[in-house]
Amino acid sequence: MKMSNVTSIGRPLDFSYPTNTAIAVLAALAWIGFFLYRFLGGQPAGASVLWGLGGGAALFLTWAQGRELDPAHQGSAFVGVALAVPGIILLGMPGLLVLAWFLGFSRIINRTVGKTPTVLDAAVLAGVSVALVVLDHWLFGFAAAAAFLLDAALPPANGKSAFLAAAVTVVSAALLGAGVAGSSNTNYTVASGVAVAAVSLLFLSSRLSSGAERRRPRRTRPACRWRRCASEAPRRWCWSTLYSCSP
Fold this sequence. Notes:
This protein has helices at about 20-40, 45-70, 75-90, 95-110, 120-135, 140-155, 160-175, 190-215; strands at about 225, 245. The protein is mainly alpha-helical.
């Protein structure tokens, strides 16, 4: 069974592309490097192995997110990878579930896969959003609802996502009202919220402009060929009738 029959946002890693091979090698090296960093720092071997795996996975998800933000340039995704290494060492391991959640919704909104999300895609993203509401912060539920609304509104519109947006909003509000939703994570400050909102606006403006460009009909240039002047010498081109164009 092909992956495309099950999911439209999941992609196999094609190693015929040099950048795909490069990120696979870098992720493996990161796993070894992060393991040695923790193990030589006095941490148990088992915990160090898991921390190394998490670091390699974080670098891979960072690269994949960079490819979504700038799909036209393959090398730009490695800028985020280079910044992620000192970030993990200095700030700690990021939430892998959060990175995967953000990547999934980016692929849905940006339409880089060219297809609407399958039922499995929508169910998994909705389930992960609810899990993050409980485990991390209630903001993830309403952010997921906003992403589903964008999927329903941006061309080509996917009307089914509007129902998912309503469902995720109701569940998130119910969990928040019941006191089950997480809110103890103090990493989400006003400054980080403003930064995320600014990046989101830039992303949406690019997404809308690219959508308008795709909808705009292209002008086809008529097929033309050079033509010589009958009254001039054989080797001189006729500048008055430079092209002979078929209608």
